[in-house]
Design brief:
The complex is a heterotrimer of chains A (about 450), B (about 270) and C (about 475). Chain B is an alpha/beta fold. Chain B is built from eleven helices and ten strands. The N terminus of chain B is likely disordered. The chains are: A mainly alpha (about 450), B alpha/beta (about 270), C mainly alpha (about 475).
């Protein structure tokens, strides 16, 4: 028998008919649905990138600042006309004297004739108005310099700084730009002589509020923020941990406990501005604490941060298995001892993580601080928590309201600094969690 | 001679109407762990095949291979060959959605959707576009519930949530939901383990009736149940298919010592 | 002594008490510590607690009560005619306080000169660096004297009494130390009390929020009727000069409510679809690696301070929307508009929707998915017809939480929404919100008697009530949902 004969002979069984399930169309829908998801995530990430990069691009240039180094004759006749050269006399003397000193030196640097006072005055506009205070502070700290010739580095005016960074277009008509053609020529001259330099902007980190962009910095605001963080840490951590221990370990099942729990969960979602109103009404209006003080800011932020810390701490306490408690109780420890000797140490990483995240939230909070008068022009470092102070985010808010390009740049730089703080805190929290996390 | 011819024909076209599904050298891995070892098993058309064995023996794993529910577990890997009507179901050209419409499944714990009874049963026909219009759909739902022996009990409250039924009713609802798609094979993963004895009896009765139209594979840890409802039985132990054959044969005359020990209750 | 030094002194006494308690416990059993009921530290703590806790309680009560008593005594010195003449007690009180401040800086001779009328009070006090708002009436000097006398007496009294209580507490506690005394139990009872009071801070905060706003809001509603406030369509608070009547201004809430709702709606229209689809993708489709990267990155959006979003809206998004959409379409000319604020706020609340929705979708039991997949449903069919309907209550909860976040958000709208009050459908127009107006009414000089300041509290309590309602509803729904699957 051949193979072909076998083919014909075989009783072929046919498969049953298939139902049509409309698969083509259904898979199209499936694909589209999936794409929506990808697009949503991509959009979210795009927004994140757009936000961060727009801030960084605008702010990165603020970390450099134009300086000019001039040979200054610290003329005793001008600085101390009455002959008294000591710290007190210098600090109380008229600060505008130093303008003359610097103007003369600057004019000489640019080769402007000694008697051409008008031109010298115009040229002097290129130097920051903060120069005189800088020079006075320098001499007050070291009166021996009076009468000598010194090389001193001064900040240049924010317009010069902006021009050098390319923020001012030299092609637009002269009348519409703050830097005139003659200024440009001087700047070129300074550049060629090597007197002008772009330096790392330390002032951004040390100065306080100022109406001149080049002498405005976040130093004072950072100190205010640090005071507040210290207060929040000192109050919210112990209170939060104590409250969590009570709720998690001791609280009986009753109305009061329910009420406390509902309260904590709700407080976590109350708009932050409401806490500001609370601070204004209770701490300032009722208790009579000073406005604009970091003490009040710290108290308000403490109340705001408490729910976050309590929720995190309770989760950490819950994560410690009951067997640990039973083991301690089994050897005759009291409940309090079991908790403080065994449970709490084991929950510490979780508590710390929650605390850091709470602190990071508090650090970026602005709205409640506006309510308690921290929108203040504070140029001096606060010494105690009762002194007028401002906070980093509030400083950002105040600068954001300034129209000058130089302030936009500085606002972005301040945001970069704020975000850097937050990133460090959050990375620490993640590290703590990863490093000390226990799996039971 | 004719028998030989026929056997040859079967191997060439790969299709034998009396064998609905068959597994050849099936191995299953969960990550690094191998859960099934070279299983060869045929599922006979319009019969109930029971998979029995102690827990962890791989019987549920094998069942979930038959409609590729294991795909939903990312670390699970299947090798070997499983065919439905002679077609390899793990072939890339095979559509898993279509496969599952043809090989339906009823789970260990009743899992009605949090929807009305009607919507639970109508779900399958709706997504597969099996009903021409509303009356058609209503008929499919009524029929399925009828065949699942549930219609009389729920016909007045089709709009109530399926989760409100008793455990046994929920499981029969899930069976109705599976047969509403009109599959060729129904897989049942310990369908009675969460039910009381009376509900179990009803479901077992139902399985026997369903055999006329569907091929059924049931995983059970109860040997009595296997004996009651199945025509063929396969005994799994530690991931290996130890023995398989007609149910009465396995229960009265097991060949392998491990099977003997299991059905006489020495381990389990 | 100022309260700070009193606290330090009491703490010092408490430390002494601790040392003494330990020593006495030791001595009571002649060094055989096993005979003691508790470890020695507990006896020390017991004494320290008795030395400090009653003293601190007394100090706290004193600090609250003294101002009230002094205030009453001073007010009693002010003749009724004077109150009737100015109509403003707090104004007079302020002057009296300044006079008192000034009087305390006078030397004895200056004071004598003042009493016999050789010099006028106002310039004299001004020369000491205290500026006065009005001339000094004789009764004011009397009242100021009373104030100074009472305050001085109060400081001495409180210092003496608090320290006395502290020392007495220490002594009594020391006397009670005996070997069989259950020092640990007493100390633990006190600690437990401390823990309970710490958790009461949450309730106190809520009570503080409600009462601080309620009183001032009621005060406001006694000046402006609630009907005019809640149903008024014009917002024009007109900062009137102090004392001048008749220029109260109009406080219509509706324009603010409209702006708030409009901006929040735009924000939700952006955040809900993006957040929800992102959550679905991460919960149902994404591989573990994609999820491990995308989820925390999206959550970074929630960690960025709102002031940063505000600035982003102000300098980047606002001008972009103005130049590319609003001006070409002729719909507006300002970068500060509803659209800018809404879009940026939407970006901010994406993670609020996505994180919670993700948790909730993941919590839907796998049996549901298996049931659907086992019938031959595709993944998206399973999600749309089984998973999402099952997760719907939780998702609604997360959207409500996001909405409450949007309504209460401040910094974005302060910087990007504008200050003009408009009721209009054009999203490229400036509009303003409740929070913006709270900020603008409460920054700068505050006068707790004028409706211009008080209206902020009425706005505040309205905002609090609305967000509280949303939060309670959302948390309730989410909890009910969780219970369903536990």
């Amino acid at each position: 028998m051949t193979d072909a004969a076998m083919e014909t002979a075989k009783p072929v069984a046919t498969r049953p008919a298939r139902t049509d399930f409309g698969l083509k169309k259904r898979y199209r829908v499936e694909r589209r649905f999936r794409i929506y998801g990808v697009v949503a995530i991509a959009l979210g990430l795009f927004f994140l990138v757009a936000l961060i990069s727009s801030i960084v691009l605008q702010g990165i240039s603020a970390f450099r600042q134009a300086n000019v180094e001039i040979d200054v004759l610290l003329d005793k006749a001008i600085i101390a006309p009455n002959g008294a050269v000591n710290t007190d006399a210098l600090m109380t003397g008229n600060v505008f004297r130093y303008d003359d000193v610097i103007r003369n030196a600057f004019a000489a640097q640019l080769g402007i004739a000694k008697d051409d006072k008008g031109t010298a005055r115009t040229a002097y506009n290129l130097v920051s108005k903060g120069a005189r205070i800088q020079l006075r502070a320098m001499l007050a700290a070291n009166p021996d310099l009076v009468g000598t010739r010194q090389k001193v580095s001064f900040l240049l005016d924010s317009n010069v700084d902006a021009f050098l960074k390319g923020h001012i277009d030299a092609d637009i008509p002269e009348s519409r730009r703050p830097i005139k053609d003659r200024d440009i020529a001087w700047i070129k001259q300074l550049e060629d002589s090597g007197a002008l330099s772009m330096k790392f902007n330390t002032g951004l980190f040390t100065f306080g509020a100022s109406s001149r962009p080049e002498t405005a910095g976040v130093g004072v605001a950072v100190i205010g923020s640090l005071y507040m963080m210290a207060i929040v840490l000192a109050l919210a951590l112990p209170i939060g941990v104590a409250a969590s221990i009570y709720l998690e370990e001791f609280a009986p099942q009753n109305r009061l406990t329910d009420l406390i729990e509902v309260n904590i969960n709700n407080l976590a979602a109350v708009p932050s501005i409401v806490f500001g109103i609370l601070g204004l009404a209770v701490f300032i209006n009722f208790a009579g604490l000073p406005r604009s003080a970091s003490l009040v800011g710290g108290l308000v932020l403490t109340l705001m941060t408490l729910p976050t810390i309590i929720i995190a701490t309770r989760a950490a306490l819950k994560g410690v298995p009951p067997s640990i408690r039973e083991a301690a109780l089994g050897v005759g420890a009291s409940k309090m001892q079991a908790i403080f000797h065994h449970v709490l140490p084991l929950a510490t990483p979780g508590i710390l993580t929650g605390t850091i995240i709470g602190l990071a939230q508090a650090l970026g909070e602005t709205a409640p601080l506006l309510m308690i008068g921290m929108v203040a022009f504070v140029a001096d470092y606060p010494v105690t928590p009762n002194d007028p102070a401002t906070a980093l985010p509030v400083q950002i808010y105040m600068w954001a309201g300034q129209a000058e390009r130089a302030f936009v740049e500085r606002t972005s730089a301040a945001i970069i600094i704020l975000l850097a703080f937050l990133a460090i805190m959050n990375i620490t929290a993640v590290f703590l969690r990863k490093r000390f996390e226990r799996r039971w | 001679m004719n028998d030989i011819l026929e056997a040859a024909a079967v191997t060439e076209t790969g299709y034998d109407p009396s064998i609905k599904m068959s597994g050849r050298d099936v191995c299953v891995f969960y990550g690094d762990k191998q859960a099934l070892f070279d299983v060869n098993l045929d599922i006979t058309t319009n019969q109930v095949t029971a998979l029995i064995g102690p827990s962890g023996c791989g019987k549920s794993t094998f069942l979930r291979c038959l409609n590729r529910m294991n795909d939903t577990i990312s670390i699970c890997r299947v090798t070997g060959n499983i065919s439905l009507d002679g077609e390899d179901i793990y072939d890339p050209s095979i559509d898993v959605v279509e496969l599952r419409a043809r090989v339906g499944m009823v789970f260990q714990k009743p899992n009605p959707f949090p929807k009305s009874i009607f919507e639970n049963v109508a779900y399958g026909p709706r997504i597969h576009g099996l009903a021409r219009d509303k009356t058609d759909l209503e008929e499919i739902v009524a029929n399925s519930l009828e065949r699942a022996g549930l219609f009389a009990e729920v016909k007045d409250r089709l709009d109530e949530p399926g989760t409100g039924l008793s455990g046994g009713q929920q499981q029969r609802l899930c069976i109705a939901r599976a047969i509403a798609v009109n599959p060729e094979v129904i897989l049942m993963d310990e369908p009675c383990s969460a039910l009381d004895p009376i509900a179990t009896a009803k479901v077992e009765e139902l399985i026997d009736e369903l055999r006329e139209k569907f091929t059924i594979v049931i995983v059970t840890h109860s040997m009595q149940q296997a004996a009651r409802v199945s025509q063929r039985t396969a005994f799994f132990h530690l991931g290996i298919l130890v023995e398989e054959g007609p149910t009465d044969h396995i229960f009265t005359n097991p060949v392998d010592r491990r099977t003997q020990d299991y059905i006489t209750g020495r381990f389990g | 002594m100022s309260p700070f030094w009193i606290i330090l002194a009491v703490l010092g006494i408490a430390i002494l008490g601790f040392v003494a308690g330990v020593a006495r416990a030791r001595a009571s059993v002649n060094g055989n510590l096993v005979k003691l009921h508790s470890r020695t530290g507990y006896y020390g703590s017991f004494v320290a607690i008795w030395a400090s806790l009653p003293a601190f309680l007394l100090l706290g009560v004193w600090l609250i009560v003294q101002p009230i008593v002094v205030d009453r005594a001073v007010t009693a010195q002010i003749p009724d005619e004077a109150i009737a003449a100015t109509g403003n007690l707090s104004l007079i009180n302020g002057v009296v306080r300044s006079v008192a401040e000034g009087l305390s800086r006078l030397s004895a001779t200056e004071r004598r000169d003042l009493d016999i009328g050789v010099v006028a009070a106002r310039p004299l006090i001004a020369s000491k660096g205290v500026a006065l708002a009005s001339d000094v009436e004789p009764y004011m000097i009397r009242a100021a004297d009373t104030l100074n006398r009472l305050q001085a007496a109060g400081v001495i009294g409180r210092t003496a009494l608090v320290l006395l209580v502290s020392v007495v507490g220490l002594g009594l506690a020391l006397l009670r130390i005996r070997p069989a005394q259950r020092a640990r139990n007493s100390v633990e009872t006190v600690i437990r009390g401390v823990l309970l009071s710490a958790s009461m801070v949450a309730i106190l905060t809520t009570v503080g929020i409600v009462f601080s706003m309620l009183f001032e809001a009621l005060h406001f509603f006694s000046i402006v009727s609630p009907i005019n406030f809640f149903f008024g369509t014009v917002w024009d608070p007109r900062f009137a000069a102090a004392g001048s009547e008749g220029t109260a201004g109009q406080f219509g809430f509706l324009p603010l409510a409209w702006g708030t709702l409009y901006i929040s709606t735009i924000a939700l229209l952006i955040a809900v679809p993006i957040g929800l689809f992102a959550a679905i993708y991460m919960a149902e489709y994404a591989t573990a690696q994609v999820r491990a990267v995308a989820k925390p990155l999206l959550e970074v959006l929630a960690g960025i301070p709102t002031i940063v979003y505000g600035f982003f809206a102000l300098v980047t998004v606002g001008p972009m929307i103005r130049d590319w959409i609003a001006i070409p379409l002729g719909l507006g000319s300002s970068g500060n508009n509803v659209m800018t604020a809404g879009v940026v706020m939407g970006i901010m609340i994406i993670p609020f929707v996505s994180s919670l929705s993700d948790d909730i979708i993941t919590a839907v039991p796998n049996a549901m998915r298996d049931g659907s997949l086992g019938l031959g449903a595709t993944k998206s069919e399973t999600i749309k017809r089984v998973v999402l309907p099952a997760a719907l209550p939780g998702i609604v909860g997360s959207v409500l939480l996001a909405a409450s976040r949007a309504i209460g958000e401040t910094m974005i709208v302060v910087l990007a929404a504008g200050v003009a009050t408009n009721i209009s459908a054009n999203p490229f127009q400036e509009m303003t919100t409740i929070t913006v107006k709270i900020v603008s009414q409460l920054t700068g000089d505050l006068e707790f008697t004028s409706p211009q300041t008080l209206v902020a509290f009425a706005l505040g309590i309205t905002l609090f009530t609305v967000t509280l309602g949303l939060n309670i509803l959302a948390l309730h729904i989410v909890r009910k949902y969780r219970e369903q699957y536990e």
